[in-house]
Amino acid sequence: PGHVQLLPPQNVTLLSKDFAMILTWAPGEGSPPDVTYTVRYESQDRLDKWMKVPHCRNISRPFCNLTCALPSLYVKVRARVKALWGRSQSPWVKSQFKDYYSDVELAPPVLTLNVRDSSICVSASFPLPTCVENLTWKYDLHLWEAGSEDKKKYEGYFRKDTVTINTTALRGNYCLSARALYESINLKHSEFSQPVCVLLNHKG
């Protein structure tokens, strides 16, 4: 078969999700099942210079993680994608501009608890792309007795910090939850993580 009119990808969106910048799209109408896609990006300080993204060339999945391909986390970028099938290519479709620094969306941290005789040590890990490890991520931690609204708050800890809570005076079922924080143009935070509950000083 000769040259087919390949319709361009739809709903092309640059979104920030769970600490990452990801370009997503949907296949164009009537796309063959084995269509592939190629992605490029440009940054606002070098317009009309579309850069290749080696790991998003001739891919079959409808998304491309751009986080660690970006030259700067502080400059707005946009991306474009086209469909390829055999010798046919669709037109490029562009996303809107975004930058990591001000648009980043955070995922809740994952808590690890180490329960000892008279304390709990709590650490929070974040699912970060390697290239943003060095940014100043923090977290807030809340502790409360199950069923109570009264929360003890431990705030503004750096990502690698462990919070040690003295549990000598605590008895019963206690729950912990945390959220990630990031200071950009304004303070951003994730949702709180699902509570993790532990029985403390349980005699029985």
From TrEMBL:
Coiled-coil regions listed:
none
A GO molecular function annotation here is: cytokine receptor activity
Recorded hits in Pfam families, A to Z, give: Interfer-bind, Tissue_fac
Q: Which domain of life is it from?
A: Eukaryota
GO cellular component terms listed in the entry, alphabetical order: plasma membrane
The segment(s) forming the Fibronectin type-III domain are 8-103
Gene3D superfamilies xrefs: Immunoglobulins
Quote the InterPro entries the UniProt record gives.
FN3_dom (IPR003961), FN3_sf (IPR036116), Ig-like_fold (IPR013783), Interferon/interleukin_rcp_dom (IPR015373), Type-II_Cytokine-TF_Rcpt (IPR050650)
Q: What is the recorded name of this protein?
A: INLR1 protein
